Fold this protein.
Amino acid sequence: MVIAGLPKPLLQQTRVYVIDGNSRYPYEWFDPGKSVELKSARLVRDILKQPEQDIDLAQAKLTVDKLIDPTVDIEAGLERIEAMVTKIKAMPGFGGSQTTKLEALKRYIYEPGEWNNFQPYQYDLNDPLGTKLSNKLLSRYLESKKGNCVTMPLLFVILGQRLGIDVTAATAPLHILVKFKDETGATYNLETTSGANPARDVWYREQMPMTEEAVANGVYLRPLTRKETVAIMATTLAEHYFEQREFEKAITISDLTLEYYPRDVEAMVRKGSAYYRLLAKYYLEKYRSPNEIPDRAKGHYHYLSQNNHQWFAKAEALGWWEPSKEEEEKYLQKVSQKRGTKR
């Protein structure tokens, strides 16, 4: 592309956008906020572009959270986490081995004592899945001391890595767990919604049904790198945009997370769902049949439809399946039993 006839100072301030004619509704005004130039995407990419060993998971989580809730105070959050690390190191029994360090971390979080003002951190049985998006924010968990299957494992990994414990995040369907490697090299699953007690792979497969293909393809129960963990954090931002009906932004963030975590089936599914919502917005809610769609718009219709099917198909090819209502109800019944109520 050649731009001529503009003075150099003005040319330096000029931005050029390339529009795929099949990707947007014809003649719709182009909104730079919906493009890959999305500011939030740039901030997340800046984190992901760092060398693996330089990524600070606490900084990353708080940065993503602030993109969702501007009131999040990143510096205050980091100071609080550092204060927690200092307290854990001062606890009786904090030693030099992986196991003794782990036990001190578990006591700090789950057992009442002076270290946590006799208020241990607990599983939020009223919102175990973090259905309310604000409950997935780390700052909310630190304040309320009630967490879910997103905030509890992420805080555990953040603190653990700062303490020199060999812990990483891993995933199961709609769930995050922790992988711990002890001084002998043995690796264990830790379920942070239940005291960070050990849990075998078979237990997760019984509680959260997953296919053989998904496990074999490394979709579930595999230790994540720091970059993959940041990608998991950023899926909450995509979820936020989806809830706000900003589907193009949800797609942009999903594209970014998939670039660094290609096996993130939840991002694939959310991306496919976002394309469906755009399809409904522009066509399904306006026309009774595809035959009624104007010829000039049919390319866009097919583009959205194809992407909707394509991204679900990609997730399914890796072994993902959509949980049935019966499976979801079964899981929530178990949570209700912990709470002492019936569904």
